Sequence to fold (93 residues):
Amino acid sequence: MSELVDGLGPNGKLIVVGASFDPIEVTPIQLISGSKSLQGWSTGTPADSKDTLHFAELTGVRPMIETYPLEKAREAYARMMSGKAEFRVVLTM
Fold:
């Protein structure tokens, strides 16, 4: 995550939602220049997740994914690792 700080725009905020024991290294000048910030945020309760899924169902929200048959798993993985996948890469069976 350390590398992401330099990609923030003016007044940009990096919000950390994943738990990890790996340190995030940021220099004061990275934060001061451009008034950037770093913030931790818990992802919510199980009830929040249930409400979110219910909202998605009611409003027609659907994920944007690229699907590949299981036989093309190697190709799907290569696309994902190359950064060319525009959305999530999902294998179908």
In short: Residues 63-93 form one domain. The beta strands are 13-16, 37-40, 65-69, 88-92. The chain is about 30% helix and 20% strand.
